[in-house]
Amino acid sequence: MTTEIKRVFSFYFFLKKKSSRTKIFFLLSSAAILLALVIRAYRLAGHWAENSQIIFQNILMVFFLQFLIIILALFYGTSIVPEEMEGKTWPYLSSRPVSKAAIIIGKYLSSLAVTSIMLVSSLLLSYFILNLDRDFQLKDIWTVVSYSLVLLLGLAAYLSFFTFLSTWLAKPILLGLAFGFGWENVIQYFPGTTQKLSIVHYLKSLLPQYASASGRLSFLFIRLEPTRDWLAVLILLLITVVFLGLAALLFSYKEYLIQD
Amino acid sequence: MTSIREKGYHHWEGQFLDNPRTFWPISRTGIKLAFGRKHFKLGYTFSFLPAMIYAVIIYISERLEDFKFIAQGGDKLLQVNPDFFKSYLTLDLLYFAILILMSIGGAGLLADDFRHKAVQLYFARPLTKADYLLGKAGVIIFFTGTLTLVPAVLLYILKLLFAGSFAFFLDYPWLILSILACSLLIVLFFTAFILLASSLSNNRNYVISIIFGVYFFSEILRGISFAIFRSPLSALFSISANLKQVAAGFFQVKPPYNYPWYLSFLLVSLFCFLAYLIVKHKVRGVEVIK
Amino acid sequence: MTAIIEARNLSRWYGNVLGISEINLEINPGITALLGPNGAGKSTFMKILTGQLKANIGEARIFGEKVWNNRRIFSRLGFCPEDDAFYEDLSGLEFLSGLLSLYGFSQAESRQKASQALDLVELADVADRQVRSYSRGMRQRIKIAQAIAHDPEVLILDEPLSGLDPLSKRRIIKLIKEFKNAGKTIVISSHILPEVEALTSEIVLIHQGKIIARGDIYFIRDLIDTHPHMIRIKSAQYRQLATTMAGEDYLLKMAFEPEDQAVVFETHDRDRFFNRLNELLLSSPLAIDEITSPDDNLQAVFDYLVGK
Predict the structure, then answer these.
(1) Can you give the pTM of this predicted structure?
(2) Which band of pLDDT confidence, cut at 50, 70 and 90, is reported for residue B71?
(3) CB contact, 8 Å: B205 with chain A?
(4) What is the sign of the dihedral through the CA atoms of B51, B53, B59 and B62?
(5) Domain around C68
(6) Which residues of chain A neighbour C73 with C-beta distances below 8 Å?
(7) Of B88, B118, B136, B252, which is most buried, counting CB atoms within 10 Å of its CB?
(8) What distance separates the 2 farthest-apart alpha carbons in chain C?
């Protein structure tokens, strides 16, 4: 099975590299770099003396956390099965000696790899553009690494959930949209355990700035009742594994018809 | 051997009839297809919920004495004035509903034609490019119109009927024009936006991602830009903020952002114009060149 | 000897619509053609054979093994789907080598096998061009290339000749025959009899999801020949034509359409009818505007065979 997953992964990673859509999403991810450049230039012009770490945490992280990882996971995740059915390329895959579970996991991993490259490259570059100055310390590298890890965890969890939707529904994108931009946004304003029914809750629990609500974007993290770090990581990993497993299982037994 | 005297593909060479309704069969089919899509009817019906709530508010506002227990502290909410109509036409929920509905029934308008190489089939008939685009736009105009213009006008009529006098009309004689202008601008904007997105890809899912991606990205950009520059002009980045600003101008109420409303109006108009040019270019790219 | 492909009591519905019903079939090495009008159930049968669909009743076996969710047999099987669908961003070579890598071949092996397959289908010179820029014939050939690139023992080809120009058709027919000569098992579907005739004499007639006849081409031809054919001839001298033909013993019926200046003949021996018509045209000054066969299609033959 592992070798089959590797084969599927390599094929689809190559395919995604060649895809024009990947280039568009790369451009979209680069918006953070552009924003960082604008902020840096603005600061160099003598405006806005606030600590650049705080600026990054409170401004660019909003872009990554509440927009980029969701849109990337949504597009790549919900298209994992429908792109084969709508593009009618499914027969090419189904008649190869690879298991259906390997197809799903391999495609999931290739999507995760491509989107991770987009996310991490944009995150690192924008972070360094904003923070690389005389005050830059070694511990700041750990900060950006920890941001990357948290966002990657989020990306993996969202992608896994949307992959499951794509194996379950013929047109998963609308439900995905309602979840990614509706449910995930609304639920975080609810108190108590309700907000724990979202992925973004665990991501915010892992980001210190959200736990201590203050600053200009405090409206984004009001009422956050954080989950402990280790538990949040565990739950995010669990979400990833469970939904990916369910997707692989469902895909192995469900029959898919190509729509004319 | 005889030589080839003529070769190549041909557009419709006959005379175009001066029929202003040539676009209608395309629109009609698009509307019918949208209604045929799964969950569309349900979503469409639910999208009228805000309008119904606003109708109830109008009813209560006319019978304040009977509804004192509701009105306590909520007098401002129950005032029916230009701001009331503006707030209906700029509801985020309404825009979200339009986007959802148009993702189901509008995302594929051009994308599906590109995917199935159907554009050539249209132009093999006595149909101009304007007819084709108008036919496609008609689908979006129908749905956005029935969710903005129609309810807003009906609410206005309802207000006059419940009031039983022309006092409201005399207080704001220009209001109906504002409702018409604002609704038309919103309809025009969403038509341009959806058609533009639909022309950018032949994959419906990708188009839906573009629609929502751009909408939410514009909102995030507004937030980030405001955090950086602290300038009200940041609202120019946001789709919904621009529409709210223009609506405030049309309804002669205080704009939500501290800059002249016509800037947003110019931006929205420019967007619509550019969208038209791009869509026209995209359609040209796939038709048989004369 | 066990057959290479076995279908036992195979049935499949799409909701209330019948795809195939109680198909029992054994297929041995050589070319077997599934012949039937559109919607007859040929593609459904092939999809079950290639593991895309699961039968509601019965089972399909290849090399004695069940097909559904059994990936092992796919190393020995090649499938050419009917739909004109590709990973359009890839070049021809990338498309083939990418799919070959799914069999576990190394990158170098995949490229080598892909190049060989491209050579076989005469697409080597456009190997580096994106598939999206290929013509219809080239796309059909690369679909076949992906089915044969890993040198399978069984080839399943769904309408491989559809929409091709005569030259491309000839190329593909030649290629399929080469595979047959190499001792492979080939199942091919078509709804056009002359195409199938050019490939094989072993034919399975499918109609409305059922096998209605199986045999060699001569048997099918005989069946078809007993089916009366209608031939409509439009000519200013249609009455004169009818008079001349009237004595022929293979003519079953004649009907006039004076408003169109046409005569409709009904015959059970089309070949003799046309031979006689050719003689007439050469020997007399008859001018013919149009010859059509109102029922000259497979659907009519099938309707006749099932007694409609």
Answers:
(1) 0.81
(2) low
(3) yes
(4) negative
(5) 5-223
(6) 97
(7) B136
(8) 73
